Amino acid sequence: MGCTPEAFLQVLSAPGTNFYHWNLCYENSTMFLSDKYRRGRGCRYSQSGRSSPQNFNRIIADLRVDGMTYKKKRPYSLENLTCKCGRSESVSAAANEEENRTWINGIAMDSDISKFELAQQLKNENGAVFSNIDLGTPGAINSKLNGVGDSFEDEAWDLLRASMVYYCGNPIGTIAANDPNDSSISNYDQVFIRDFVPSGLAFLLKGEYDIVRSFILHTLQLQSWEKTMDCHSPGQGLMPASFKVRTVPLEGDDSATEDVLDPDFGEAAIGRVAPVDSGLWWIILLRAYGKCSGDRSVQERVDVQTGIKMILKLCLADGFDMFPTLLVTDGSCMIDRRMGIHGHPLEIQALFYSALLSAREMLAPEDGSTDLITALNNRLVALPFHIREYYWTDMKKLNEIYRYKTEEYSYDAVNKFNIYPDQIPPWLVEWMPNKGGYLIGNLQPAHMDFRFFSLGNLWSIISSLATNEQSHAILDLIEAKWAELVADMPLKICYPALEGEEWRIVTGSDPKNTPWSYHNGGSWPTLLWQLTVACIKMNRPGIAENAVKIAERRLSRDKWPEYYDTKRGRFIGKQARLFQTWSIAGYLVAKLLLAKPESANILVNIEDTELVNAFSCMLSANPRRKRSRMGAKKSYII
Ligand code: GLC
């Protein structure tokens, strides 16, 4: 596309590549939930279904959501919505018979009744499927179920299936940790949105799509549920951090029970943190589902399209911010407690960018969403520029910062954020390799958080938020700093740990986040899958293979812990859960991807050349990137 203003405009108002007509989308969609259902009591659909059956499957409302009009249909008949006979198919008529087959502990179940009965039999108190097998013995599940116990992967699959959570007799997610010997389960008995991503990917890569479709559609119903904390409700479009399936007596019928989905948006979570990453992960998983299964009918549904738009609307809302990065509170992502990552942490920006690109691919053009698409495209142009330019650090950049002038009051300051060179931490001067670099953890006025955060850097590679050169440099750094970042257990969540006074001030003396433990420099096996995707994308799978080999030696023996402690990751984490599902699933996804690297494309975002062109148009129109008020307005608001 030529570098004309028209071309730029065209890019900014183009949604994605998947154009289709509204009517087509409408006809193909099989179930539309009214706002009433989306915001009903839990996911107790039966409670909301008060209308007459003949009203079902007809459009009931043109709802205006965030300035856009959406047509919605009522869901299924009352009978289908009660848990006694509710089925995952009720939220997706797109599935064919083979796809509908459910797997329970490795057994393919064709009949819904037997599915339900077996699920009930196997269901433990937490809603997870749990057999009588002794989980305490590595390899035990595998040997007792399959008769052979010789492979870590087989064991991991059995454990993953054992962590499946059932709603109305159908798998809907996986429990965060499934250790029968742990009495202090806290909220690890819930299905976490972010934790389910590697589980979902493992199932997708194995060709088992049902559970992922069911997860996507049911969590959608939880979106923006009217829960409040001290009289305040979360923003519309927010996805919960986690949810729990509760089985409760059916109202008016003592002999029956129903399952209710109970989401947590952070109002019960430790620290009351809102999970900004949940919606972003949901979009990323939705795209992966479509790409892997070939079933685009889910993303084309009107309720799903609405869900995507609600997440985008929330993320793209105007605020007081001067930066294109997303402004969040501390602990709004995988690190879900105070760790000094408030402001514009890299992890959120990388997931945000990936979600924006994924949404652009999936959104159907529709009257009324032009503004949203324009805002999305604007962000897609501005965000990578900001991150690549201001978050990047390597020897050269570090030396530039070292020589920064400060207190520059002007529109074209070099040191725009007024970073005082003294902020460069002594450890970094020694640590920065000659070859390699990384994106810093956070950037705020007069503050650069120089810690290396693995997830943010890996996901910047995967989403192409980092340039090609930067992506290679990040992997160079991981190789160069292997002894610190990988060591005895891949992968450190961040490096280095906060210690002493800094730990006291930043974490609030958090006894769980002591130096080199948990979020504060602990090692998290689940990060293996993200490392693997990034390495495959950059055609350097050998790095991930080496990391997997290290993890493999210990994970099964150590009962699949949540995280490891100490500088080299030598100890099982002090308070780490055992049989942590995303440690298990992360390992499986890494193995599956290494065996079939081309599958990684379900997660990777390739840099959009139209956006790159639009970006260079923007720059060439203003080569010195002068921040004149008029210029900035012209460049960004199109
Ligand atoms: C911990 C992790 C969080 C995860 C949760 C459940 O709180 O920090 O990222 O989602 O456990 O596993």
TrEMBL record:
UniProt keyword Hydrolase, yes or no: yes
Record field: catalytic activity: Hydrolysis of terminal non-reducing beta-D-fructofuranoside residues in beta-D-fructofuranosides
EC number: 3.2.1.26
Keywords: Carbohydrate metabolism, Glycosidase, Hydrolase
Keyword Hydrolase: yes
One Pfam family, short name: Glyco_hydro_100
GO cellular component: chloroplast
Entry GO MF terms: endo-alpha-N-acetylgalactosaminidase activity; sucrose alpha-glucosidase activity
Position of the signal peptide: none
Gene3D superfamilies xrefs: 1.50.10.10
Superkingdom of this protein's organism: Eukaryota
Record GO biological process: sucrose catabolic process
Function according to Swiss-Prot or TrEMBL: Invertase that cleaves sucrose into glucose and fructose.
Alphabetized PANTHER family for the sequence: ALKALINE_NEUTRAL INVERTASE E, CHLOROPLASTIC, PTHR31916
Family in the record: Belongs to the glycosyl hydrolase 100 family.
Protein name, entry field: Alkaline/neutral invertase
Naturally occurring in which organism (per UniProt): Daucus carota subsp. sativus
